[in-house]
């Protein structure tokens, strides 16, 4: 049985739960230990105090003639808490070996010795003390579980048994029943205990929160940096030394990564700028050259080189996309994209489930660019695109926007479905090589999906064609 799945997910909740549980166990053990200590001393004091009374009863019965002892026994029973029975032979009761029994026996011996006349031989004595817990005898003392559950036992008591032989050979069986003064449930100071627990719980929650807060800041910074690397999110340098060291390392890592990306961006910008000028000169010279098939092919190559430069620069910029999330009506956003395509004369259809009529935080420019690239691919290879949108509810009540874009093209070899996301990779076997493109559209679309913490997957349809499935977790999704 996997118990981890029943535990809270967050570190704050787990630490709070475990520490409160440990405090509850410690608090309970402390109460039981204190109750046991005071109870043991109370019982010992009661036994010591009644030892003199029992010794006096023994001395009075010993001085009384045998025929008058029953009347004296009845009188003693009325005026004391001691029950006495006279016997002709020794009763079958073993000597108790526990501490309470030995304690009781020692005090009885001491009291009888104080009342004995000089030269009197010691009497035969046996003592046994039994504590009554939950309606049963428990020997010397209650076990831990008996002690815990005895808090609910309002009838807790103890029995002290004593057998003593008189000088004439008669045996006395003496029983003393006394309350254990156990800390019963109704006697517990509820208000004090509850106040202690809630004060400790409040302090514990505050301490755990302050310990976990730097980790939350670190996680938020990592998530923010992963989604939008153009905006720095510096982690506060606070908390324990280990957390401060992690925050400093993360901030330094951000700066290094951002520096590398900015350097690469500058390099691509410079490369693009340097290539545009010679490409423009080549295009102008070719346009002024005599016509012919060779000229047309050269112009196509120059145009292709210019497009590759532009797409490479665009891909570099999209990796460091700077855009603030905006609350957007999802269904209206998708309908606007489809309507723009229709106005351009493109064959694009849309089906949307009613649950897509909600607003959520998205990067609208990035998402539109992602969908435009997918629609361009579908129209380029399939002449028709069908966009289907729906909202899924995943475990944990998380909303996920699913967008499927289907075409009627030739599809892709299953072995290449993952490879097509690599930059500049084009499928020549399953796609027409004369349809254009440079193999960057899907790579850019996947990057834009990752910016939304989403996924982009391709699959071949059974009836033919390709399906691009985009799934994006919706942040703060609510009805539009």
From TrEMBL:
Class of this enzyme: transferase
Keyword Phosphoprotein: yes
GO CC, one annotated term: plasma membrane
Localization, UniProt: Cell inner membrane
Record keywords: ATP-binding, Cell inner membrane, Cell membrane, Kinase, Membrane, Nucleotide-binding, Phosphoprotein, Transferase, Transmembrane, Transmembrane helix, Two-component regulatory system
Gene Ontology molecular function: any one: phosphorelay sensor kinase activity
TM ranges: 190-212
Membrane topology, record value: Multi-pass membrane protein
Catalyzed reaction equations: ATP + protein L-histidine = ADP + protein N-phospho-L-histidine
SMART domains recorded: HAMP, HATPase_c, HisKA
Residues of the Histidine kinase domain: 270-476
Primary location recorded for the protein, binned into one broad class: membrane
Domain HAMP: 209-262
EC number: 2.7.13.3
PANTHER family: SENSOR HISTIDINE KINASE ENVZ (PTHR44936:SF5), SENSOR PROTEIN CREC (PTHR44936)
Identification of the protein by name: histidine kinase
Organism lineage: Bacteria, Pseudomonadati, Thermodesulfobacteriota, Desulfovibrionia, Desulfovibrionales
